[in-house]
């Protein structure tokens, strides 16, 4: 009995201790929870909602990485040996070349347009940003039509005897590094142009006046005063463009060049999915490296402008350089806008005469509209809790959710699509091969566009409004929907429009995920252009370009 | 700040309106076939078709089926046969249309296709059908050389596949990339005839000798017609297609390996397979029986200008050489299925890229 009792007491004690422990644990974790949220935790509904969004956004990428780790040592060795060095060289050389050249063009155009007496500079500010509305794969098609091996330029060359006599056969090969380099540069420089223009406009004249009083020439001032101030803008532009080149699939594949994205697509197309995931992992690492460099430089370089004595920069006279500047601006504008639009219009007219705008065309357009519209609706709904959490309940968790939401945005579409195929085919067969899967992929790719637009509006709404509503007893999620949403609706809608346009233009994920019988305009441009049926591809391309003009004003204001 | 937002708002609302209106109308469309009772076959619902055959040949056929039966056909073009294997646990397609008997037989061997006794299958010679009719081929093509008569005479042309290895042809002919379905089947057939070692040598040699490696056979026929190359390795119907062009049509065709003791011309066929466990199995069977009607067999051949397999049917291209007039490689086409899996690896290893780079 004694024994028994003795046994009993510790047991009871044990239970008590455990109870006490669990109580302290609960209290501790509660305290920790409050600490994380700085004493202001969001309601559970809002929190779970945000968490779900973050999960949806990051799962495809996690899945791809996971798969690549189990691809087998053999495959890794073979790819590291044979494929990856060449791909790295192809990808990096192209990225560096395009970034450098786009920077040079973008910055010099910005300087000419903002700071000199170029005739019609207000109009040029608009016109030179216009290539943004032409998806690079469409640009590539137009350049193939003109400069390709059976293109117009070849015909002119062949029919011009003295050209053939002096230079021999038609020398241009658009299907080459230089072809890809040229096309990507022409359709990405506007990013740099916009960012550089914005910071040139904000540049204080005082610094330049001091430099000039010290006897520096305009050229020296550009290098010693303007350029250092432009460094953050140039850095931001370089990051944008190099990320773009890493992720582009359409233009690169159409011009038959192979970078990581194209290699991943073709490995997947021949169903070597394990190799595709390995290549994806390498590309993910490359992307993360670039993002890391960006955040590192952003921390390191801080340039301050004094705002209290701000004077607008003055306009420099071009003098004898005027014809050169006009010629330069005109050449870039012709190559990046006039030529593509003219070619597309020419083929569209032929196409429309041949009846390209038939029922099929409208079905494709409707499919594009349907899937992009659905994706933009979803983005508007899903962006709200994430940005609301981030702005009203700042914490490690909400910033993690925010960061995870950017995963699909930073990474190339082929990787997102690859993850989607794995997940839906194996785990969510109900939705596999439906247009919901495609729309969700667009959400993963473009949600941050909706978030950025929403955040801009949300930062203008005072948190006092939330507090007032909370004091009346509303839970956080209800505050978000009934009080905040109506106030930031314009921002959310603008974000939705951006997502809509990006989705309509999207090519790689659409190609890989479209369900049977659900071709979109982007898919048709790809298919018809690769069959050289330009009269069918051109009207679809023009339509996409027109739709892309919608949010251009918003994008121009952003910079 | 306000103005662009207002613009955006109105644009989005109008888009949403169009969107919802269009959704409504598409619902009406799907209910239409039920009202259609006049058709001989009372079918409803959908049919999911995966195809790796040229879209321009397949779409008119599928539209014809849709019009005659009211079944909504959902087609996915450019499908690799391996996609059907990947989806084996979650079957999406009802029908697989392929240009390559090797791919069809391979899928049957993997248990992806399902046999059934289709009415009308007997119109097709047994060598062009699976044992259990899981796939049935309807049109046949032969490999050979299209040549430009302005640049080279029939006598000068090579007469066998093997001769392409001769360095004297360097730079004078065009081939497709290694991943092209007909090219793969061509190499598979050679592997059966010659063994892997010699076939690898052949692939390496033609890759080195070729003046251009092109995306598809259509590019080759156009280039040869335009006089960019003396000849090209294609399927016979590309020769028929080039003859029908308004210009650049002074071309001829060599059916290779026709001599005494030579292997005979390499054939391949295009056909249709029934996917096991497809979501619309009844429609799939109806589609195959519909397809086996004579008029639809011809519609399957369509604009491709291939030769129909059914001997009763006249080829759409009247002057086409009949297969029965040719010396044909002895291998039963089905055997291509056994080579399907590793021929691509052999081609790549021999140095011919599957995709253009």
UniProtKB/TrEMBL annotation, chain A:
Residue ranges of every copy of the ABC transmembrane type-1 domain listed in the record: 88-294, 365-555
SUPFAM superfamilies for the chain: MetI-like
Location in or out of the cell: Cell inner membrane; Cell membrane
TM regions (residue ranges): 44-66, 86-114, 126-152, 172-196, 233-254, 274-293, 324-349, 361-384, 404-424, 430-447, 479-504, 532-556
Matches recorded under Pfam families: BPD_transp_1
UniProt superkingdom: Bacteria
GO-annotated cellular components: plasma membrane
Main localization (coarse): membrane
Keyword Membrane listed: yes
Its membrane topology: Multi-pass membrane protein
Any one Gene Ontology BP term: transmembrane transport
InterPro entries: MetI-like, MetI-like_sf
Record keywords, A-Z: Cell inner membrane, Cell membrane, Membrane, Transmembrane, Transmembrane helix, Transport
Family: Belongs to the binding-protein-dependent transport system permease family.
PANTHER family (UniProt xref): FE(3+)-TRANSPORT SYSTEM PERMEASE PROTEIN FBPB 2, INNER MEMBRANE ABC TRANSPORTER PERMEASE PROTEIN YDCV
Name of this chain's protein: Iron(III) transport system permease protein
Organism lineage: Bacteria, Bacillati, Bacillota, Bacilli, Bacillales
From TrEMBL, chain B:
UniProt similarity note: Belongs to the bacterial solute-binding protein 1 family.
Region forming the signal peptide: 1-24
Binding site for Fe cation: 237-238
UniProt GO BP: iron ion transport; transmembrane transport
Protein name as catalogued: Iron(III) transport system substrate-binding protein
Taxonomy, superkingdom: Bacteria
Keywords: Ion transport, Iron, Iron transport, Metal-binding, Signal, Transport
PANTHER family: IRON-UTILIZATION PERIPLASMIC PROTEIN, THIAMINE-BINDING PERIPLASMIC PROTEIN-RELATED
GO molecular function: metal ion binding
Key word Iron present: yes
Native organism: Anoxybacillus pushchinoensis
Gene Ontology cellular component annotations, sorted alphabetically: outer membrane-bounded periplasmic space
């Amino acid at each position: 009995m004694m024994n028994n009792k003795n046994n009993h007491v510790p047991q009871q004690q044990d239970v008590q201790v455990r109870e006490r422990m669990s109580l302290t644990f609960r209290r501790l974790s509660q305290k920790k929870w409050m600490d994380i949220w700085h004493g202001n935790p969001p309601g559970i509904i809002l929190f779970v909602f945000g968490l779900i969004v973050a999960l949806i956004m990051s799962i495809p990428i996690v899945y791809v990485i996971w798969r690549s780790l189990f691809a087998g040592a053999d495959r890794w060795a073979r790819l590291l040996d044979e494929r990856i060095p060449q791909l790295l060289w192809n990808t990096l050389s192209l990225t560096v070349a395009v970034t450098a050249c786009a920077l040079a063009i973008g910055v010099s155009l910005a300087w000419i347009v903002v700071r000199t007496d170029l005739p019609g500079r207000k109009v040029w500010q608009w016109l030179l940003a216009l290539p943004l509305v032409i998806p690079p794969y469409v640009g590539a098609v137009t350049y193939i039509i003109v400069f390709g091996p059976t293109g117009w330029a070849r015909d002119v060359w062949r029919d011009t005897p003295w050209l053939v006599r002096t230079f021999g056969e038609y020398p241009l090969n658009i299907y080459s590094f230089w072809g890809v380099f040229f096309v990507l540069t022409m359709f990405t420089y506007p990013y740099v142009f916009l960012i550089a223009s914005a910071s040139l406009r904000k540049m204080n004249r005082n610094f330049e006046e001091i430099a000039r009083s010290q006897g520096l020439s305009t050229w020296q001032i550009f290098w010693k005063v303007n350029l250092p101030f432009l460094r953050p803008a140039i850095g931001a532009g370089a990051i944008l463009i190099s990320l773009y080149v890493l992720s582009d699939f359409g233009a690169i594949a159409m011009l038959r060049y192979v970078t990581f994205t194209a290699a991943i697509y073709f490995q997947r197309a021949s169903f070597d999915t394990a190799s595709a995931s390995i290549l994806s992992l390498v590309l993910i690492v490359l992307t993360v490296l670039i993002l890391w460099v960006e955040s590192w430089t952003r921390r390191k370089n801080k340039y301050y402008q004094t705002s209290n004595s701000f004077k607008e920069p003055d306009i420099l006279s071009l003098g004898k350089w005027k014809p050169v500047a006009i010629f330069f601006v005109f050449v870039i504008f012709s190559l990046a806008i006039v030529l593509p639009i003219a070619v597309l219009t020419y083929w569209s007219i032929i196409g429309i005469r041949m009846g390209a705008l038939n029922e099929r065309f409208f079905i494709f357009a409707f499919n594009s509209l349907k899937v992009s519209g659905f994706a933009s609706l979803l983005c508007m709904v899903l962006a709200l809790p994430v940005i609301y959490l981030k702005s009203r309940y700042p914490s490690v968790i909400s910033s993690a959710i925010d960061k995870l939401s950017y995963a699909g945005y930073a990474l190339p579409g082929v990787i997102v699509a690859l993850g989607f195929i794995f997940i839906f085919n194996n785990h969510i067969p109900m939705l596999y091969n439906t247009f919901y899967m495609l729309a969700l992929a667009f959400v993963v790719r473009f949600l941050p566009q909706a978030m950025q637009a929403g955040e801009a509006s949300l930062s203008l709404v005072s948190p006092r409004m939330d507090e007032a509503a909370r004091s009346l007893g509303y839970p956080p999620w209800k505050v978000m929907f009934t009080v905040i949403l109506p106030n930031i609706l314009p921002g959310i809608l603008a974000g939705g429009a951006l997502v809509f346009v990006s989705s309509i233009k999207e090519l790689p994920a659409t190609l890989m995920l479209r369900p049977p019988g659900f071709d979109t305009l982007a898919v048709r441009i790809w298919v018809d252009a690769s069959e050289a049926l330009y009269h069918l591809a051109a009207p679809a391309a023009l339509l996409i370009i027109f739709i892309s003009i919608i949010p251009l004003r918003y994008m121009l204001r952003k910079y | 700040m306000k103005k662009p937002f207002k613009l955006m708002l109105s644009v989005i609302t109008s888009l949403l309106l169009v969107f919802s209106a269009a959704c409504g109308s598409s619902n009406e469309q799907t209910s239409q076939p039920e009202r259609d009772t006049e058709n001989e076959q009372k079918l409803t619902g959908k049919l999911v078709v995966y195809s790796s055959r040229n879209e321009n040949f397949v779409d008119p056929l599928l539209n014809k089926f849709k019009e005659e039966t009211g079944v909504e056909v959902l087609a996915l073009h450019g499908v690799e046969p391996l996609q059907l294997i990947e989806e084996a646990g979650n079957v999406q397609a009802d029908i697989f249309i392929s240009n390559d008997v090797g791919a069809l037989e391979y899928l049957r061997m993997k248990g992806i296709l399902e046999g059934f006794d289709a009415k009308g299958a007997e119109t097709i010679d047994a060598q062009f059908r699976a044992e259990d009719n899981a796939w049935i081929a309807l049109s046949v093509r032969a490999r050979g050389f299209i040549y430009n008569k302005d640049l080279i005479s029939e006598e000068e042309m090579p007469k066998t596949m093997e001769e392409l290895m001769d360095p004297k042809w360097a730079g004078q002919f065009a081939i497709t990339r290694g991943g092209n379905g007909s090219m793969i089947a061509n190499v598979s057939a050679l592997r059966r005839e010659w063994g892997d070692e010699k076939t690898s040598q052949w692939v390496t040699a033609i890759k080195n000798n070729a003046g251009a490696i092109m995306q598809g056979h259509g590019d080759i026929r156009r280039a040869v017609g335009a006089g960019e190359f003396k000849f090209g390795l294609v399927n016979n119907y590309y020769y028929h297609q080039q003859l029908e062009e308004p210009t650049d049509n002074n071309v001829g065709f060599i059916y290779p390996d026709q001599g005494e003791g030579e292997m005979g011309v390499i054939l391949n066929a295009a056909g249709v397979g029934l996917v096991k466990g497809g979501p619309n199995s009844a429609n799939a069977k109806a589609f195959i029986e519909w397809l086996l009607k004579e008029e639809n067999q011809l519609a399957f051949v369509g604009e491709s200008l291939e030769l129909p397999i059914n001997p009763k049917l006249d080829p759409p291209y009247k002057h086409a050489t009949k297969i029965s007039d040719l010396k044909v490689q002895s291998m039963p086409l089905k055997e291509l299925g056994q080579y399907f899996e590793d021929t691509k690896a052999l081609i790549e290893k021999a140095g011919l890229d599957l995709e253009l780079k």
